[in-house]
Amino acid sequence: MSKKVKVCYILPFFDEKTDTHLFYNYELIKESAKNLDIFLIIERAKGDPTKLGCKFKVQKLKNPVLRFLELLLIVKLARLRGYSNFYTHYSYFGALASWLITLIFGGKAFYWNRGMPWLFKRGFFEEKVFRFILRHTILATSPVSLAEDYKKIYGVREYRILGNWIDHERYIPQKSKEKYKKDLGLEIEKKYVLFVHHLSERKGADFIAPVAEKFKNENVEFLVAGDGEYFKKLKSEVDNSPPQPPSLKVREGGDKEILSPCGGRVILLGKIPQSEVVKYFHASDVFFMPSREEGSPHVILEAMASGVPFVASNIGGISELTMPEAREFLCGVGDIECFAGKIKKLLNDAELRENIRKNGFEFVRNFSKEKAVKEFSELFEPKIYYVANARFPTEKAHGIQMAKMIEAMIGKGASIEVLAPNRGKGNIKKFYGLRREVLIKRLPVLPFYNFGKIGFWLSSVSFALGYWFFLIWKSLRGEKFIIYTIDIDQFSFFAVPFAGAPYFVEVHDAKKKGFFFNILFKNAKGIIVINNIIKETIAKEFSFAKDKIIVHPNGIDLEKFSNLSPKSEAREKLDLPKREKIALYVGKFYNWKGLGILADTAQKLQDVKFYLVGGSKEELKKVSGIENWAENLVCAGQRDFKEMPLWLASADVLLVLGTKANEYSYKHTSPMKLFEYMASERPIVASRTPAIEQIVSENDVIFYEPDNPESFADSIKHALEGAEGSRNKAQNAHEKVKKFSWEKRAESVLNFIKL
User: Fold this and answer.
1) Angle in degrees, 0-180, between the axes of helices 723-736 and 709-721, rounded to the nearest 10
2) Contact status, residue 342 vs residue 314, Cβ threshold 8 Å
3) Are 420 and 359 in a shared domain?
4) Contact, 122 vs 103, CB < 8 A?
5) Start-end of H helices in 364-438
6) Is the same domain home to 236 and 309?
7) pLDDT in tens, 254-271
8) Which tens digit of pLDDT belongs to each residue from 601-652?
């Protein structure tokens, strides 16, 4: 039985009767403690933490300086007992202590924060401390859009996504709305709008009275559950009513029923324990959250799980928690008219409320406790160091493949840092149009990559020594990690087996026996290949177990290449002829691709315009040996990767090459352009090679015989003339490509690595 991962969790406050989001932290700790060895440090406690099911220590000292020193000592002792993962919820002291101890003794320090703190001023010293923490710990937050804001505003170096969750069973109604109303002393015939939150301007408490004012002549009451610095002011706002209201009912103990200035009734419930809030949800008709600042609020999930439609500010991560059909009920911050109008629309349409209720029940299941526990546990899984002897970013296909795959793996919860030579320039996210930042460590190398084979060899050896020293240093500091490397060249990976960590190798062609590959494959935990031919060859050549080799072709960004522009619009944007038949090839000009066939084929189809995107006329002649240039063959040069969808949309037929003259081209390649072609839903003419037939069949493309211009020309003509048949094949290819997304490839590879 494997040992549980040790996690030291620092919690600023424990109160078993809390009315805050900390209630969810307690539940998460209790569930996670079943699979993790959690040592809980509680800065202040009210109640009995033993119910959380884990070891804990409650701080005793009260003086702030002494409290920090006490916390520092507890954290140090935890580290000496093998706790190398430190997770701090909000606490500055906890984050600083974790950072300092992991800096000295090694380990990882996580800091949870979720919100929009940049909208509100802090004191000078507090702001400096906050920024320091965010830059020197791993931020745990959600959603991705919010994490990217933290990165942009505060310079966060690394973040992990930890989504919110809800216990669905707890919010299932146990009786009718009328019964809940009766039990809470509410009037059956009235409709209720519920506000549950900390009462502050940040949470929009100052918008409650103005919105309630819009309901002065309606049988509607606002229930306000919560306490905070705005409570007294809110009471005064609704208490300073004009003479028209008949009376106020004030209940002792903090529960006050009062009237808003123009007669809209507001009931201040005061502080309600989180365990009791569910009753008010079930008694209410609409939930109202007019916050100025939010991250990924639990109360939105609570409303959906309770079957209560909501009206909220469109701020922070709220839209990402909202099902598409309910996003019309999100308003701009402080838009009183919008808030009131949307609430009225919901209150006056029972069928609409019922539809949102049913859909909300289903949508909120995406935010389960099981998923949250899994995400929390994955925070502490070993980091993946992606070792690649490549200029990164680069316009070449291997750079795109790396960027997209790494982005998808990060999206699946992996913590990845790229180790690459200090060659590439530019921001990886911006260069490739990624949705997430890619963390990269550029290692110093000898600057001889462009000085022939000897220069490349010397620089590559310096890179290998650089990543070896880096990884050994990480290992000596107690960090657990996995190495993932890819076969960019034939030898720079030679130091990987000696870096003191399990490693996996991604291979894009069959390897022959040799000193470096023998060592690499002998100790690899697993190999990732792009087709079955490569798998069989490696298993045979190196006597490598087949069950340790996973086959997964390259992938596709489906969103980027689906729903392309109309052909006429794309051609206009690219300044291409509107009425010509266009056959398009996209890809870098390499001699192994068999590009020479294009000139001969173009000569045979004078009424078709052949556009080649990927290089110049001179480059094509150099790598292909073409002498007789066809007038209808046009080289469009290298184009920005972001422009590719337009080019595909402009074409009548898309071309995939392959030649018997090169083993890699014929047997091993897994061209990303083929997947992009398939996603574009345009007719495809492809070389009938074993490598291509690993991906598509005659149901998806029109094949031609490799290195045969006659066959190539006939297939292109058939694709252009056979309208219905070509369209059916294109539709089949479009449907098939859905299983080749980068996300599915990443999920498959990560599951394999965990084995």
Assistant:
1) 100
2) no
3) no
4) no
5) 369-378, 397-411, 428-432
6) yes
7) 444 443 333 458 999 998
8) 999 999 999 999 999 999 999 988 888 889 999 999 999 888 999 999 999 9
